[in-house]
Amino acid sequence: MTGSDSNDSLNDSTQRILRVGIIGCGEISQVAHIPNINFLSHLFRTTYLCDVSRQALAHCEKKVNSTEPKTTTDAEVLCSSDEVDVVLIANADAYHVEHGLLALKYDKYCLIEKPAAVCFRDIDRLIEAEKSSKGKVLVGTMRRYASAFVDAVQEIGGVDKILYARVRDIIGPNSVFVEQSGTFPQKFSDFAESDTQDRLKREDDIQQQALAREFEVPVTPESRRMLRLLGGDQANISSLGTHDLSAMREILGMPRGVSGAMLTFPGIFSVLFDYGSFPVTYESGFVNVPEFDAHIEVYSADKIVRVEFDTPYVKGLPTIMIVKEKVGNGSFQERKIRKTYEDAYTLELQEFYNCVVGGKTPKTSAVDARNDIELFRMILQAGAHRYQ
């Protein structure tokens, strides 16, 4: 889906306005989701907010540019409401599956912020629930909806001629980008100690399920932290892996395995994927330099295709495709394509709208997201010697 394709599809639709219930009024909702729904007021309207913090609810109420939304601390009240058509789930990772199941229970499409889940047990519960629901899940790996990324998939045209690929995501402090987003998010702590304890209990259960029972990796503070880095946004560790690995899969498919992994974190870690006829290196981590270095670069004998992503927290920064290739009798050509300033979050929401009104299954579905968990397993098993 390109930006123009999305707009054409929207123009052909009935232009029904979907009423959105948002679960989770934290940073990502304040910085991205609520503003983007406001901008897309011809497609969406926020009608319900849910959070365990009443101060967060009051703050986000003021950010909604429509009729004053209803608020609740109970996710099922929101999901069951006749005033909600679709559900956006952006709260703590430990509740993504539980609240996705609630949305599906009431036959509603839901956009679940990544990760949908980090263990097979939980993603399979979502997949099974979809079978008896009129609703479907779209997992918020929004980079895969960026126009330049979609174009790059077409430009590469398959894996049969690939010699090598590199996936990199090494970024500076996330707070730098958030503070310059112009959205002035706030954090609140007026929730009960029982809420914190419930979240911690759920997180521990999920980590034990993934690491010990499914991945057969020792459960240590270091392996828990790496799972969070690959899959989620827990314990103040920002997730990078889900975005990178999900995008890698769409361009290159699933690897045969992992040939090696140096899971050095804090710092920068590296993984070598085995794609049979070519290698893929994946490197990721954090530095103090306020730079956002996220890209995928694919090499063939006569062409190099690179997709560059900028921070999603500053609206309007484009995703760019760069193509370097041999032309004619040995000449060199470089093309730098910026198709649109529409950001990936906006394009993702437009595709979510198209899926709902058209009854389609999103490409970033729960079934698709199961493959990310398989990659988490491969990586953690390859580096398990660090956790003995």
From TrEMBL:
The lineage of its organism: Eukaryota, Fungi, Dikarya, Ascomycota, Pezizomycotina. GO terms for biological process: NADPH regeneration. InterPro entries: Gfo/Idh/MocA-like_OxRdtase_N, NAD(P)-bd_dom_sf. One of its GO terms (molecular function) is oxidoreductase activity. GO terms for cellular component: cytoplasm. Residues 18-140 form the Gfo/Idh/MocA-like oxidoreductase N-terminal domain. This is Gfo/Idh/MocA-like oxidoreductase N-terminal domain-containing protein. Pfam families: GFO_IDH_MocA (PF01408). It comes from the Eukaryota.
